[in-house]
């Protein structure tokens, strides 16, 4: 199956969309040429500059490695309406779709983590002020400074966003973990020269997020919102593959088996309505069982969050869809 992520197919789609005649394709097998032309058309016709856009946070469960697999599945749909991502986390798939110009009908990004969502909104609406606060953290960074920032919550939303990015880039493994009082409690990570303020990426993300609706919500809301022909991508906290592999606590309360089952109901309701639904999860018996009536494909991904080093490495993940 040809993939829309394959530059050849993406190039042809863009040529069609922008009314460019097929004779300019030249040699149909010249993938590089088509990719280059696709990129030129995106920049010149759409005024859509395709900067180096990628997640501005290092988020556990980030999907950058699984993007080819997910984009290949999405390429089975000719077009879709609004895009919803109810567990946005680092947002890797959103940026990939934005780069490919697939989000013309708009996007809604949500997550239950209010601090993460506040940070997204600040990057979208107030990126230069976040950058100036973050540069101060970058200039002052050391062991003592990290712990002094960790224990103070600033008053302004842009300073809170800069604090979240600073802690994310310098803490152990980019983890987001809070104690029962809602205080961030991850220790300093072991980085010799962490990239704390990547200005190009922050500005690129601000542009990519400029027309997205962003809010803090639990995933169930999407049942009320998504319409036939829309695309919903679910990337929930994964079902643990073993007792020691359980990292499900992105938020207070975690994401237990009941939540996985509730999510499967939401998935089925949307599928019945004619919404395109796609979901990532770990390849466990429970997940295979609750989604058995849908298409399931597998890919390997490297995961580093197991508490035991000997159990870190490549693990099988599933992508489940109704298309
Ligand atoms: C696996 S991460 C998402 C990874 C992300 N898609 C990426 O590419 O980086 C899971 C996310 O689900 C969020 N989450 C946990 N429970 C949730 C709920 N009930 N509703 C919405 N989001 C939830 C967490 O805050 C976390 O950001």
Question: What can you see in these coordinates?
Answer:
The chain contains twelve helices and seven strands. It is α/β, with parallel strands linked by helices and 323 residues long. It folds into two domains: 7-47, no CATH class; 53-323, Vaccinia Virus protein VP39 (Rossmann fold, 3-Layer(aba) Sandwich), CATH 3.40.50.150. The protein has a seven-stranded mixed beta sheet, with helices on both faces. The radius of gyration is 20 Å and the shape is globular. The two termini are 13 Å apart. The model is unreliable at 1-41 (pLDDT under 50). It binds S-adenosylmethionine. The site of S-adenosylmethionine has 22 residues, from loops.
Topology:
Blueprint: H1 7-17, H2 31-46, H3 67-74, E1 83-85, H4 92-99, E2 107-111, H5 114-125, H6 127-140, H7 143-150, H8 157-170, H9 199-209, E3 213-216, H10 222-225, E4 231-234, H11 257-273, E5 276-282, H12 285-290, E6 295-303, E7 313-321
Parallel strand pairs: 1-2, 1-4, 2-3, 4-5
Antiparallel strand pairs: 5-7, 6-7
Helix pairs in contact: 1-2, 5-8, 5-9, 6-8
The chain binds S-adenosylmethionine (SAM).
């Amino acid at each position: 199956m040809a993939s829309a992520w394959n530059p050849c197919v993406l190039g042809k789609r863009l040529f069609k969309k922008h009314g460019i005649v097929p004779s300019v394709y030249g040699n149909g097998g010249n993938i590089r040429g088509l990719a280059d032309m696709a990129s030129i058309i995106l920049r010149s016709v759409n005024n859509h500059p395709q900067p180096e856009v990628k997640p501005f946070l290092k988020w556990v469960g980030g999907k950058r490695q699984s993007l080819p697999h997910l984009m290949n599945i999405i390429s089975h749909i000719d077009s879709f309406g609004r895009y919803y991502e109810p567990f946005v986390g680092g947002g890797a798939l959103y940026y990939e779709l934005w780069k490919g110009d697939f989000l013309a009908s708009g996007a809604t990004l949500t997550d239950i983590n209010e601090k993460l969502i506040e940070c997204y909104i600040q990057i979208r609406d107030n990126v230069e002020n976040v950058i100036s606060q973050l540069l101060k953290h970058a200039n002052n960074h050391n062991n003592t400074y990290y712990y002094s920032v960790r224990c103070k919550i600033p008053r302004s939303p842009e300073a809170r966003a800069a604090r979240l990015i600073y802690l994310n880039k310098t803490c152990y493994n980019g983890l987001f973990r809070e104690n029962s009082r809602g205080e961030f409690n991850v220790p300093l990570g072991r980085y010799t020269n962490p990239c704390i303020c990547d200005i190009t990426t922050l500005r690129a993300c601000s542009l990519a997020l400029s027309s997205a609706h962003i809010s803090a919500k639990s995933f169930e809301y999407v049942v009320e919102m998504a319409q036939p022909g829309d695309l919903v991508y679910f990337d929930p906290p994964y079902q643990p593959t073993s007792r020691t592999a359980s990292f499900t606590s992105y938020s207070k309360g975690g994401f237990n088996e009941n939540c996985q089952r509730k999510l499967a109901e939401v998935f089925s309701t949307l599928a019945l309505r004619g919404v395109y639904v796609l979901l990532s999860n770990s390849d466990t018996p429970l997940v295979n069982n609750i989604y058995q009536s849908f298409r399931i494909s597998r890919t390997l991904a490297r995961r580093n969050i197991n508490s035991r080093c000997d159990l870190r490495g490549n693990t099988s993940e599933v992508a489940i869809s109704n298309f």
